Amino acid sequence: MKRFSAVGAALLLAAGLAGCSVKSDTGGTGGGEEISFLTFETPNLKPEYWDEAIKRVQAKNPEIKVKKLVAPNTDRTAYAKQLLQSGQFPDVMIAVAPAGFAEAGELYAWSPDELKDFEFPTANPVRGKYFQLPANTQTIPPVYYNKKLFAAAGITAEPKTWPELIAAAEKLKAAGTTPFVTGGGKDGFASSMILAGIVSTDVYSKNKDWLTHRREDKVKFADPDFTAALAKFADLAAKGYVDKTSLSRDYTATEQAFLEGKGAMYPMGNWFAAAADSKPHDFDIGVFNFPTTDGKLVVPAYTGGGMIVNANSKNLPAAKKFALAFQLDKAQLDQSVKADGLIPAIKGYTPPSDMGAVYQAGYKLYQDAVKQSAVVHAFRWETADDGLLPGMADKVDQAAQDLITGRKPAAEVAAFLDTEWNKAR
Amino acid sequence: MWPRVWHFLSFGAPGVLVYVCFVLAPIGISFWYSLTNYNPFNPPISYVGFDNYVLLFQDNEFLTALKITSILTAIVVVVPNVLGLGVALLLDRPGWLYNALRSVFFTPVILSSVVVSIIWSRLLDNDGPLNAFLRVVGLDPPGWLSDPDVAIYSLASIVCWQMLGFCVVVYLAGLQGVPTELLEAAEIDGAGPVRRFRAVTWPLLAPALTINTVVLLISAFKTYDYVKVITNGGPGAGATATIAFNVLATGFDANHVGYASAMAIVMLLIVAVVTAVVLKLLQRREVDL
């Protein structure tokens, strides 16, 4: 009995200590060619999209086994951080911002040779290296609009300048239509889309490295040009063009609200084109570039969004192979275009000719902007050295909500952003 | 002597180990982190003493979160307690209908808070069924979740709705423990229903009140899931951000694990002190009665 008790105590002690120990590696899966792959789901990117994509890569690389992980919400970067801190950092992740992970040495830096097939291989540098495959470009935000509501309000031309946009909004409001569809709830980015457009076109068009300069303390949110951009957005909301009661809508409900005709204009990333071309609605949808003060062509866009690879993966060669195979596969690129309206940034790639009218129109707007060198960063969406500090994107969304509700004036919001920036360092 | 110690250890060790590994060790680690500038993406870790705690009490975001958490906690402690007692009194009678109603009231308790949050965010949406009804009857509904001045009360109501069933069950258990002979004696002495409740039932429900209050207090103070799913702390800066929400946002979004740990330790201390005081007061009341 005594010996039994002693052995029992020893076993329990050992089990307890084992439970207390921390894994020494930084995640990844076990042996063989198995890798873990962190995905996320949206109204466009459903589970079957990822399953089919993985199958396609595996068909050409049967030695690679893939364990699919799904982020609990659209904020996959925050989830990746949790996985890293709990010793479960995936081998491969898609559309996870590399900033932070890269500086901490957690990500594999792609070589120029590995990036040779990408159109913008030097997009999103972190300390001079490239950690995220620059797989696609997203214009953020073009303005999608309801042609039926525009016609009913007597608007005959797409607004190109800010005064034209205001005039259109006034006509829509007079006709009893909510000019801008916006959202919020758990998906705060839906609140800050218009603000992203204003800052990108007004501030970045004068200083394309504005956020890099903010990191160097050369500029501040409270500077006149940025505060003016905040005030421009606040003015739009104060005139009743943005429905402040819709701030509780999450992203899915916001998209649905536009498709149900609950508002005339929907500034959103070009991924909306996929939904516009496939989901039911009883009106035609048009798209125009986010208007600038004087009508000069400025198109905010973000190139990146591709895969990052865990530098400490036990199966690093397999992880790299999977990531490149996934991003460069023609069939997968076609699917990403159809499902999520992406503009692949792969050399020689052209989207399928049977893409819908809304996608084609948005694609043309982007191509024209590229030809005229009119592309600037999309404020809030940058993910590298030229991006917001970790945790700041949520603060920008909250700032946008405060401007929409009129809870704070522009100057106070600018001060709030500077305070939060200093805390985020 | 030693064999006897080993014998007791073999029985006590599992509980002690679980407690040490999953309660004391994380608290100890968090406290250590709170004395550092720990940022997993920006090593190395440096000891900063109590700087994080000093900063915390100069941080408007934290002070706002403390206020929001206090408002939420006050509502969640009071409303389900009061309504739960009322519902329990109504349901404290025999019959299949009352049994069925008890199940109905308890159902929200067993639902996931995420599911509850999704359901209520749809119901309280500007275009949701509640506002549609209010508009039909000619009322102008508020922005339940979109108005920064209203959203925290809407969130508190959702938590109250889910916790109501718990209070009902605890009070029902308490009511069924009230000796009928005492109530009959009071009735014979001429006490009416109100007097019988005040003089007999209510004092004997003291243990149920203690349980409900302490459970609601702790649950409300650590509210995170409803905020994350419904409002993400908004609309606007800090409108519905609780301390628990800020701990996770600061630790996992902004990567300031040291600072977030200081928040967590302060939250732990507040919950511990408030719970200890409330428990002491309520238990003293039980003894006095």
Low-confidence stretches of chain B at least 5 residues in length (pLDDT < 50)?
A: none
Decide which structural class fits the backbone of chain A. alpha/beta
What is the 3D shape of chain B?
A: globular
Using the 3D structure, state the CATH architecture of the largest domain in chain A: 3-Layer(aba) Sandwich
Largest beta sheet of chain A: what is the strand line-up?
Answer: 2-1-3-11
Count of DSSP-assigned helices of chain B: 13
SS field, number of helical segments of chain A: 15
CATH superfamily of the largest domain in chain A: Periplasmic binding protein-like II
Signal peptide (chain A): 1-20
Keywords (chain A): Signal, Transport
InterPro entries (chain A): Bact_solute-bd_prot1, SBP
Protein name (chain A): Extracellular solute-binding protein
Report on the architecture of this protein:
- The complex is a heterodimer of chains A (425) and B (289).
- Helix content of chain A is 42%, strand content 11%.
- Chain A has 15 helices and 13 strands.
- The longest helix of chain A is centred in the first third of the chain and has 19 residues, at 2-20.
- Chain B starts with a helix and ends with a helix.
- Chain B is globular, with a radius of gyration of 23 Å.
- Helix content of chain B is 75%, strand content 0%.
- Chain B has a domain at 61-254: Orthogonal Bundle (MetI-like fold), CATH 1.10.3720.
- Chains A and B meet through helix 1, helix 3, helix 14 and helix 15 of A and helix 1, helix 11 and helix 12 of B.
- Chain A: It comes from Lentzea tibetensis.
Write a compact overview of the structure shown:
The complex is a heterodimer of chains A (425) and B (289). Chain A has 425 residues and is α/β, with parallel strands linked by helices. Chain A contains 15 helices and 13 strands.
